[in-house]
Amino acid sequence: MLWHNTAYGLLTACLATAQQDVFTKSSNDTLLWGPYKPNLYFGVRPRVPKSLTTGLLWGRVEDFTNIQTNIRYTCEQHEGMAGYGWDAYDPRTGGIQTIHDRGNGIDLETSFVKFDHGRSGWGARIKGTPREDAEPGAGSEGGAHTMKTAVWFTVGMEGLGSVEPQDIEGSEEAGYEHDVVFSGQTNDLGDFKLTITEAEGNSHPLHAHPSYKSKPLDHTFVHSLQVPEEALWQAKGTSHCRRLTHMAWMLILTKPSHSDHFRLLENNCRWLCSRIH
Amino acid sequence: MPPPWQTYTIQHRPDQGNMHAVQKVFEGAFEFDVIYTPSTAERTAKSEDLSKAIDAVAKSFDAKYEVVLKPQAPFGDADHLRFSKSLFSNLIGGVGYFYGDQVIDRSYATEYEEENEGFWQETAEARARNQQKTEGPYELFTSVPSRPFFPRGFLWDEGFHLLPIVEFDPELVMQILSSWFNTMDEDGWMPREQILGSEARSKVPTEFQVQYPHYANPPTLFMVLEALLDAAGHKDSEFFSTQQAISGNAAGNALANPEALKTWLKQLYPLLQRNFEWYRRTQWGDLKSYDRPAFSSKEAYRWRGRSPQHILTSGLDDYPRAQPPHPGELHTDLMAWMGMMANSIHRVADYIGQGEDSARYAKIAEAIRRNTDDLHWSKRDKTYCDATVDDYEDSAHVCHKGYISIFPFMTGLVGPDHEHLKEILDLISDEDELWSPHGIRSLSKNDEFYGTEENYWRSPVWMNMNYLVVQQLLVSTTQCDPAPLITLLISQCTEHRHPPRPRASARPQDVLRAAQEPRRHGVQVLARDGFRVGAIQSGNWCRAADAAFHRLDEPGGQDDAYAGS
Fold first, then answer.
1. Residue contact A207–B8, C-beta within 8 A
2. Residues of A in contact with B9 (CB under 8 A)
3. What's the rounded Cα separation, in Å, for the pair B251 and A90?
4. pLDDT digit string, tens, across residues B190-204
5. N or C end of chain B: which has fewer CB within 10 A?
6. B24·A150 Cβ contact <8 A
7. What is the number of CB-based contacts under 8 A between chain A and chain B?
8. Is B293 left (phi over 0), alpha (psi -120 to 50) or beta?
C-alpha cells in the first residue's frame, strides 16, 4: 500500500526553489524578521534556520525569595499574568505588545518595527511602567516609582556565524556606561550590528553599600558564554538537556556566585544527556 | 550585605561566545531600545527613528485593519474594535518560525493498517516497540494555537487560523501554506502536530511527541485554498483593488497580481494532489466486505489511529463513536472533510487550467456527496451517522446527534436544495438538541453521553465548528436566518457589549472569562483546546468566528441581528 516515488523527491526540491520566485524578494525582506519565537514573551528571530535569536527576561529584584519564581521568559500559564498580547500587529511593518505582569508589579510594552520594509533592519523598544496595583516592596517603600526591576536581553547565535560585543577590551569590569553594540555575521544575514541603547531619563538604583562602587547599577552588564550547541540546543532527545540549559541560565542570572554550576553543567551536559537517555 | 538589586546582577564578562546576556537594572519606569542594522542598510536607524516608526505602525495598522476587514456596526464601536484588533493581532503576531528535527515512527508496522478486530490493542503494542526516530531537520512557518500551551504548528488548527488572515495579508497566508505543504513526505503525509527541535519538544510530554505516518487530521488547509479563490479568483474582484490601495509597498504585491496566485497554485498543485491521494489511499473505508449499497463503490472513509475512547486524529477526540471499535467503521466527519477537499482541489485544478483533473475531482466530489447520503443518512434517525458492522456482520448506523450529524452541512455538501437540509436545520435550531443560548453544542442534549466523562466534544460549544455553521448558513441556505446564531457567538467571543466595568483594553483572558460565563449555565464554550486544560490565550479560534461577523455584508441580516441586542 505504501508508495514511494523518488521523482517526488526531486519535484519537492524543484518546488522549493521555484516557490521563491512567486514570493518577491521585497516581500520576503519584509517577512524576514519577526517575533517568530511566540513561545517567549518577546523573542525576535529571522525566518531562516540556525541564526541570530534574541529573548527578553525580566523580574522584580527587591527581595531574595520572590526572584526565584518571578523571572519571566517563556510564556507560562501559571505566572498570574493579567494578560499579554499584541494590540496591533502587521507582519509587514511590526506592532505593539503589552504585557501586564501583576506578579512583578509592572506593565511592559514591547514594540517591534521594521525599517524601510525590512531593508534597513528592525528596532524594538522595551518600555516598563510600574502598575498602579503594585504591592510596595522592600525596595519601593517610597512608592512604585522606586520599584527595582532587572531586565536581561539575550543574544544568541545558533549555527555557524558569530555575534559578539564590541569594546571587549575597552569595557571596564564595572560594565558598559553607554550603548552596548554587538557585531556579527552569518551567511544568510551578512554582516550586522545589534545595538542595545542606554536611554536618557531612566533611573537606576543607588545605594550606599560598597559593592556599588565596583559595579554601579547605572551601567549595563554583559555576560558571554560559549554554549556547546550540539549538546545544549540540539541534542537528541532532550527536553532534559533543554531544562538543564534553562536551569543553568536561571542560575547564572539569579545566583552569580553559583555560576560555577553552569560551567559544571556545561562541561557535563553531554554526559548527563547520555545518561538520562 | 548588598541589596537584592545589587546581588542579582550577572558578572560583567563580555567576550566571544554564542550566547550573551545583557543586563540592566532600573528604578521605576524605564525604556531602552534594541536596534538591528544589516550592513546593507540604506541608513542606520536611531532611537528617534524608532519612535517615529512605532507611531506609524500603530496608525497604519488601524487604517489597514479598517479598510480590509471593514468592521460593521456594532463591531465598529471602540470597545469591539479594540477587542477584535487585539484578537487579530495576537493571532497574526503569534506566527512563528520553527526549525529542527522531529520524532516519527516510520516502522510502517502491519498493525498500523488497523484491519483486524481488536486492532487498537495491536497498534498499542506496535507503538510500544518504540520504533520512532528523529528525522529532519524540518522547518515550519506557522501560527500557533496558544503561546504558553501549544507554541507549535497544528494541522487541524491552522486552516482556521489562516481564514481570518486571507484578506489582511493573503501572501503571508500563501507563505504559511507553502511552508506546511513542504513538510509533506513522498507518500503525501504531513505530521499533524509539528514539534520541531528540542526547545519545542520541551513543552510536550514524551508519549505525545511521536508522529505516525498513518495518522491523518482534518485537512483544514484546503478550506484556506478555497478562501483564497473566493477572495481573489477574479481579476476584477474588489479584493485586488483593496490590496493595491493598502499595500503600496511590498505587502501583498505578489497577490495583487492574479497571475501570481495562479503561478503559486500551479507550483503547489502536485503537493495538493499527493496529499489528497494520500487521504484516499490510507484512510479508506471498507465497502466491499459488507453489504453496503452505494452510488460509488469507492468513496467511504475511516480515521486510523482510534482507540475505544478516542479518535484523536479526527480532532473530535472523545465524540461518541461505535463501540467497540471495528475495522468496518465509516466516519461521517472524515467523509465530509474529503468532500470539502475534493471540491477544493477541483476548484484549484479548474483555476489553473487542469481541465481533465478538474473533471476527475468533480466526479469524486459528486461521488462523495452521493455516498454521504447513501452510507451515512439514517432514515430511522433522520440524521447523518457513522456506520459500523454489527454482530451479524451487517452494516449498521451509529447515531449520536451532534457535530457529526451536521458535518456534511458544515463542509458544504448539503446545498440549498438538498432533501435533508430541513432536518439539519431543525436539529441545529432545536433547543433540546444542538441549539444552546451560547452557540451550537457539540453533542445533543438528548444524547446518552451528553456532558459525560472528559466532556471535551460531548457538549461544549466549539467556535471553529460554529464558524462553519455560520458560513454555511450564509452561503448555502436561504431558508434560515443566521443572525440569531451570530449574535450568540459574538457574545461568547467578545466582552459583554456594555462591560460592567470599563477596561483599559480587552485581552485574551477576557475571551476566556466571557466564554466561561456560560459554564455556570451548564454549557462550555471552547475556543481551541481551551478550558479543560485552562489554556489562556486560546482566542485563535474565536478570531475565526469573529471574522465571520465582519463578513456580514447583507444589510438585512446585519441590522436584524443586532438591532435588538
1. no
2. 150, 215, 217, 221, 256
3. 10
4. 999 999 988 888 778
5. N
6. yes
7. 493
8. beta
**Tell me, what's the pLDDT at B258?**
77
Tell me the H-state helices in A32-136: 67-70
Model pLDDT, residue A200: 86
Spatial neighbors of A255 by CB under 8 A, at least 6 apart, are none
Q: Which residues pair with B100 in a beta bridge?
A: B138
Supply A157's cell numbers: 547565535
- pLDDT < 50 stretches in chain B: 249-251, 494-541, 544-545, 547-565
Can you give the length of chain A in residues?
277
Classify residue A203 by burial, with Cβ atoms within 10 Å: 0-12, 13-18, 19+. Answer: middle
Cβ neighbours of B27 in A, within 8 Å:
145-148, 203-205
Q: Do A50 and B99 touch (CB under 8 A)?
A: yes
* B397 in Cβ contact with B381 (< 8 Å): yes
What is the torsion angle, in degrees rounded to the nearest 10, for the CA atoms of residue B187, residue B191, residue B195 and residue B196? Answer: 30
Interchain CB distance below 8 Å, B20 and A162? no
Query: B26–A203: do the CB atoms touch at under 8 Å?
Result: yes
Q: How far apart are CA A167 and CA A95, in angstroms?
A: 32
Q: Is A270 exposed, middle or buried (0-12, 13-18, 19+ CB in 10 A)?
A: middle
Point out the residue among B25, B147, B537 whose CB comes nearest to the CB of A150: B25
Three-state secondary structure call for residue B549: helix
CB contacts of A130 in chain B (<8 Å) are 28-29
Give the cell for residue B20. 550573551
Nearest Cα of chain B lies from the Cα of A91 at a distance, in angstroms, of 7
Which residues are within 8 A (CB) of A230 and not within 5 positions of it... i.e. 6 or more apart?
none
Please state, in angstroms and rounded to a whole number, the distance separating the CA atoms of residues A70 and A66. 6
ipTM exceeds 0.90, yes or no: no
What's residue B467's pLDDT? 82
CA distances from B396 to B49, B322, B326, B474 (A): 69, 10, 11, 34
Q: What is the pLDDT of residues B288-324, one digit of tens each?
A: 999 999 999 999 999 999 999 999 999 999 999 999 9
A264 CA: distance to closest CA in chain B (Å): 17
User: Cβ atoms within 10 A of the Cβ of B512, count?
Assistant: 21
**Average pLDDT of the segment spanning A225-235:** 55
Instruction: Please check whether residue B263 touches A, CB under 8 A.
Output: yes
A122 closest CA partner among A108, A111, A136, A106: A111
**A137 DSSP assignment:** -
Q: How confident is the model at residue A238 (pLDDT cuts 50, 70, 90)?
A: very low
The pTM of this model reads 0.86
